[in-house]
Amino acid sequence: MSLLTNWLESLSYELEISEFCTRNISPLSTCTACIDGCPDGAIILEEGKISIEEEKCSACGVCITVCPVQAIKGQSPARKISQNHLLLEEASPVPSLMEMLYYHKKGIRFIYQPTIQKELVQRINKVNEVLGTMVLQPIQVTQQINLSQEIQPKLSRRDFFAKLSADSKKTVLSSVTPVKWRFNESSFKASVLFKDWAFHKVRISKADCTLCEACFTICPADVFSLEENNLQIIDHLCTGCYLCVDICQTHSIQAKQRIHQAAPALYNVHQNICSKCGSRFYSWEESSSCHVCSTIEKPNFFL
Fold it and tell me: pLDDT for 219-276, tens place per residue?
């Protein structure tokens, strides 16, 4: 095996589940985004933890683009792009919704595939629903390569992809470092791509919430901000991991997918000092007893 081949193989990097996975943060997490999105069925759940079966994994990188908390480290899907076209071969994994939105932000307006898959059409329809809500130009699926003739001469399909393959090799040899593939998992965050829009709506039921602050502390995206007499919910930052919903013991968090213009929700709260334990706590109304002390069962001396 040549030195060049050894060097190129050293560029590969196995996908890795990091400590930021919500399943690692809390055993109450119900997130299965990577399992549902893996086209190889290589991601499994064992004893409450997410793991990757290496013998099944093709390292396609789709899981990186669907993880709501960017907890999967590695290289995102290798795609071929020319001008405003994303070029998919027959066996290419279908881009996820967030991956398509990422490419739309980069200027992609057409997705080419020689034989258009039903799954691709369904995915593009969902993407265009999102883009339509934001009044943005849709993405079109096509079997024709409509490139500028001044830049790209007319080629047969075989010659076209052969040229792309040759160009890809040149890119690898000229721009990829010999240590690891470039990491870009943070590129697939809606809050980064569309700063004026929120993709999820999070609200609190004041009738049920005890303001225990568990969801505020555990939220990976810092959606909840509690300062002085104000609780602020920043929908724009929500990635849809729903960990706040999973851990809430009073079922007072409501979170769902809903694309809307970003505007924080504000709640008035009260800062108090517990007369029993002396701790500071928040409540919806003024109170002299914190939630813990108020729920402690009083001893019955007559038993």
Answer: 999 999 988 889 999 999 999 999 999 999 999 999 999 999 988 899 999 999 999 8
Q: Would you state the torsion angle of the CA atoms of residues 242, 244, 248, 254, taken in this order, to the nearest 10 degrees?
A: -60
Residue 270 contacts residue 282 (beta carbons within 8 Å): yes
CATH number of 194-268: 3.30.70.20
pLDDT per position as a tens digit, 144-169: 886 654 444 555 656 655 655 555 44
Distant-in-sequence, close-in-space partners of 79: CB < 8 Å, separation ≥ 6: 86, 87, 88, 92, 95, 103
CA nearest to 193, candidates 134, 112, 111, 257 = 134
Domain ranges for the chain, please list them.
194-268
The CA distance from 84 to 139, in Å, is: 10
Structural contact between residues 82 and 109, judged by C-beta atoms closer than 8 angstroms: no
Q: Decide the pairing of beta strands 110-112 and 140-142.
A: parallel
Q: What is the dihedral of CA 172, 173, 175, 176, to 10 degrees?
A: 60
How far apart (Å, rounded) are the C-alpha atoms in residues 140 and 113? 11
Q: How far is 244 from 223, CA to CA, in rounded Å?
A: 10
Contacts of 195 (CB under 8 A, 6+ apart): 236, 262
pLDDT value at residue 227: 83
Encoded amino acid at 138, one letter: P
